[in-house]
Amino acid sequence: MENQVSEERIKEIEGVARKVRRHIIQMVYTAGSGHPGGSLSATDIMVSLYFGVMNHKPEDPKWPDRDRFVLSKGHAAPALYACLAESGYFPVEELKTFRVIGSRLQGHPDMRKTPGVEASTGSEGQGLSMGLGMALAGKLDRRPYTVYVMVGDGENDCGQIWEAAMAASFFKVDNLIAIIDRNMLQLDGPTHKIMSIEPLADKWRAFGWNVLEANGHSIAELLEMINKAKHTKGMPSIIIAHTIKGKGVSFMEGAVGFHGKVPSEEQYKKAMEELKEADA
Amino acid sequence: MKKAAWNLEPQRPAFSRALVALGNTRKDVVVASADLSSSVGTAAFAQEFPERHYNFGIAEQNMISACAGLASTGKVVFASSFAIFCTGRVYDQIRQSVCYPRLNVKIVATHAGITVGGDGATHQMIEDLALMRALPNMTVVVPADAPETEKAILAAAEYDGPVYIRMGRANVPVCTSGKDCQDFEIGKATLMREGDDVTLVGTGIMVAKCLEAAEELAKHQVSARVINLSTIKPLDEKILVKAARETGCMVTAEEHSVVMGMGAAVALVLVENAHVPMRRVGIPDSFGESGEPEELMQKYGLTVDNIVDAAHDVIKRRGR
């Protein structure tokens, strides 16, 4: 993608985001388990990457020069699967097998089972390191790809994230771009009450990263910041994307309760109605 | 008893040589260290191929997951540190980042066991085999000496999937390069000495001790078979069951806790396939301590005499 993205294109991407949100609700409801809140907050970021930024070939998932996306916050798997299905990695139909025995769509991403999944994640804090390894390989082999890693804000509690942060700037991997889904909530409650991670931007800056911020629900802003990050040389970039947990479903927005909770039948219908209305 | 006249050789230079050889023949081999490159033996590779060596500092969790990322692009990655720092400390990273996706990360652990000596219990890793063999998709190799270490490293590079390779710090008797020795192969145990009365199964530095014990037993007209069990997982069950059936009793010897180590793995094979009297020579369920390696081997029951005594005991219990 280049500097200017047309309004039309942004509208299209927003349309995909609404579809992805409907898939998320449907998947979690059908499976009877999963993580709707953090999937909905991450949706616009992931859709921006898969439909507005990344150089990838769904028909050739192992193409060596592809850009890579690592979902370090692996519990947002429904959002990832929906993006992959909408991209064409596997049939959209298959989304209903999420968390079903024998399915390729495991509760957390499995790179061996699911086409398009780049890393097996789910144990918090490991994805940024994996992305670092991919970025180092890209530099070594002089391949043109960029590695994108989505990190949950709660993951900033993990020591390993900061080990990776330190190493990434040390190795000057400017082909590594991290995006924090800063939805302000983790499983047990608001992030500032569970484990304070602020001042977050200062911390990343101190670790040698180019730090950018964006409204994580504005496709235009996300595309602009990702583009800025891509053009920053000599250091890794991180975009702190300010988001709302449960974004798109009124009663899930900002609700701690929907981190890993399934909507009731009534809630499911209401959620689908809200997401349908937005589509009109 | 008289000591066998062994040539002593440390394993780490063998590892180091093998890595450099791989660096020359394979462009896809990369190496990771965690501030111990000069101690573990990765420094030579770093010097020869600086662009393919990554020192992650004292940050093993990041190192292991980053190695997984490197391996996901097609690299064959050797990550090396002391056994204490590249197993328990990073168990979750090995489990989630490496073993679950079955990536080509080879973890080479040095300074394993109590023979680390003076550093004491904090640095004496004696439960790594238990941890590593519990992991699905993990292959666990314990070379007996320097020549076997070199072969194991080369074999691990060719092998598809995660491998854990364990070695110690001290000089080790060279016991696998005799004319009767078979070629090393991952998953294959080696018959080191024929015998009919008892089977001694050793791994790592205890293989040489088993051979010495067999010499000692021969003086008492006991014919001991000796097996070098260099792969702990997958186990070469065939050679173990055959030996148990033919000799009727077995002793295992390992520089590792008797809790869920090599002896425990062998015991489970025997329970299901060949009920024979068995004894495990190994470190009792305890932490180690500071001391000279040989003193520690004495105190924690890892001597030739311990093996000989165990052999007499199982022979007696077999009641032949």
How would you describe this protein?
The complex is a heterodimer of chains A (280) and B (320). By secondary structure, chain A is an alpha/beta fold. Chain A has helices at 7-31, 36-53, 77-87, 127-140, 159-170, 191-194, 200-206, 219-230, 265-279; strands spanning 68-71, 147-152, 176-182, 185-186, 189-190, 210-215, 237-242. In chain A, helix 5 (159-170) links the parallel strand 2 and strand 3 (176-182). In chain A, helix 1 (7-31) runs antiparallel to helix 2. The longest helix of chain A is centred in the N-terminal third of the chain and has 25 residues, at 7-31. The radius of gyration of chain A is 17 Å and the shape is globular. Chain B is globular, with a radius of gyration of 19 Å. Chain B has helices at 12-25, 37-40, 43-48, 60-72, 91-99, 128-133, 146-158, 206-218, 237-247, 262-273, 293-299, 304-318, and strands spanning 8-10, 29-33, 53-55, 76-82, 105-110, 139-141, 163-166, 171-173, 190-193, 198-202, 224-228, 231-233, 250-257, 278-283. In chain B, the strands form three sheets. A seven-stranded mixed beta sheet of chain B has the order 3-2-4-5-7-6-12. Chain B has a five-stranded mixed beta sheet with strand order 9-11-10-13-14, sandwiched between helices. The chains are: A alpha/beta (280), B alpha/beta (320).
- Overall geometric form of chain B: globular
CATH architecture of chain A: 3-Layer(aba) Sandwich
Tell me the name of the CATH class of the largest domain in chain B.
Alpha Beta
Classify the beta-strand content of chain A into a percent band. 5-15%
Major sheet size, sense and barrel closure of chain B: 7 strands, mixed
Number of strands of chain B: 14
Task: Report helical residue fraction of chain B.
Answer: 25-40%
Largest sheet of chain A: 5 strands, parallel
Helix content of chain A: 40-55%
Distance between the termini of chain A: 28 Å
Secondary structure tally, helices of chain A: 9
User: What's the CATH first level of chain A?
Assistant: Alpha Beta
Ends of chain B: how far apart? Answer: 27 Å
Oligomer category: heterodimer
Which two chains have the most extensive interface, and how many residues on each? A-B, 33 and 30 residues
Q: Can you count the beta strands of chain A?
A: 7
| Shape, per Cα inertia axes of chain A | globular
Task: Tally the structural domains of chain B.
Answer: 2
CATH architecture of the largest domain in chain B: 3-Layer(aba) Sandwich
CATH topology of the largest domain in chain B: Rossmann fold
